[in-house]
Amino acid sequence: MIRLAAKNLSRHRLRNTLAVLGIAVAAALLLDMVMLAGGMERSFERMLLSRGYQIRLAPKGTLPFDTEATFPGAAALSARLRADPRISAAGAVLGGALFTASGDSLLPLAGLGVEPQGQGLYELDRGADLAPGDTAGIVIGGTVAAATGWRPGDTVRIVSGTDPQVARASSGRRLVVRGVVHWLYAARGQRTVGIALPVMRGLGRVAGDRASMIMVKVIRDEDVEAVATEIRRLAPGAEVNSVTTLVARFRTRLTYFRQLSLILGTISLFVGILLVTTLLTITVNERLGEIATLRAIGVSRGGIVRRVLAEGALLTLAGNAIGLLLGLATARYLDGILTSFPGLPAAISFFVPERGAVIRAAAALLVAGSIAGAWPAWRAARAPIAATLREEAT
Amino acid sequence: MVSLLLVLAIQGSPPPFVAIEQRLARALELSVGDTVRVRQEPGAPGLLMVVEAIYEPRSDPATVLRNEFHARFHLSDLAALLGAPDRIDRAGVSLQPGVDPDSAARRLDRLAVGFRVRPSAEIASESSRTFLVVSRFHRAIGVISIVASAVFLLCIMLLKVEERRLDAAVMRMIGVRRRTVFAALLFEACLVALLGAALGIGLASVSTAVINAYYGHRFDTDLRFALLTPGITLFGAVLSLLLGLLAGGIAAARLVRTRPLVLWRRG
In terms of residue numbers, what domain contains A8? Predict the structure, then answer.
């Protein structure tokens, strides 16, 4: 059956090659859109859970680091949370602008004050980590190391606010580079450094026990919602977000991309169906005489239907195979464009090539392509034998 | 009026004013003259303020998806509210006519550290980076869609012309010249392509209107999310015509090169 379908298709090479190419482009676009539809969320969720912290506290009404706002009682709250037997780690984070001297100017740095006993922002690449209570150390990202040439063991000077009146730094500290780390949520090229929370407060002249965020790691996933509810009661001034709620809010912000993927995915599926239906309808019209002859020598209607459907499936299958490669290549290119959004964490991808997405896209097109052959197959099977043969003979 | 007097009694001085955007006024059912308590964070004492104006902000594509509410304060009131007197995020400088913004920015930048002076054009270019990325993405998707439609159109036109092989055979057998048959088939392909383009432009107009109505309602904005410009319309029509000509030409050339009897037999 498949060999016969392949032979039939090879009778019109140009048109079938074009059809396969058309289906391939439609399949590629469909695959890209399926990847885009779910990829962003999965990528975001994976990034949030990369260190296993399932809960984030931010100032009320904000998302973590969405604004420069801070909330009070942070370190006291994180210490209290660390004492909870259901929680394995919790740590407050304070963000702010820092600088270091670079030649005769200041190099801006993104500063993060952390509690080393509960930080989920970085992973150590080389050197040593900040120890709890280490107020003389600093950890730096690879981009800072590249820009400054700092290495573990170096003593560096970090300043924060600068005073325009006297044209010099208003507060500064000498710190020892403990290690080079990989920042999990940093944007591409962002120069980020980490210091102990009290040091950051001192440099930024932040009064009181304030922080930008608290990260909480719950031992058992099933306890996350219960712990989040309890934290909401403990800290009414903070926005308590589990990964699920953060993903939901992220999804709302990226509604546009999901709707775009739905629209373009539907269009590509429709184009694929239209192409197969048109091609098979014309092919069947051309071969009505041949089909009538087959029917006359005893081939059943079911046999004819199966042959036409097999041709549709074969066309779709060939288009799918090329479309898969084309789709993966274009997804990579499109991902390169979208991940250049300013300020987007480098760990986020928009097009995530997952086996499930590939199978879903291929199956959708294969089923659609096979169904697309149904109308021409029905026409072929219903063709009147005698009248068609007589028409062919004249 | 009653609330205003109450406020005066509590604060001992006239309350500061705030201007709020229309959406916020609707959400909180506020009107001009109402008194509101504005806090930096929940639980903080905050300041009582009188709604002095309700304004309709200019639609901004950069913030429309964030769906945030906005309010405008006098600088000193906001600084007092935030506990950050005499501090600002940014300031604007208007130059005398004829002064070059770049050289002025460089001179001001050298005056002191602690702030950075940049020409407005540079800031505009940086803040539009997000839209440049979206624009590049749209262009890439557009190219893929054009390739898909081009292949689709080529295939359909090829089939459409090939369907006419019996007619072509008859025309050739009764003495019609190859060139005439070729021109007739090409003309037909052109007509089909133009008709398809007209239908496509109609469909695009409808979908543009639907998209703008849907997103305008969803984000409560008069921004336009899809634009069908004369340039795009012309590009679509010309591309469709060119592809129709190309496909029709290829298929017609193949037909007229084939001998009439072969065409007839294949029919």
Answer: 2-46+255-393
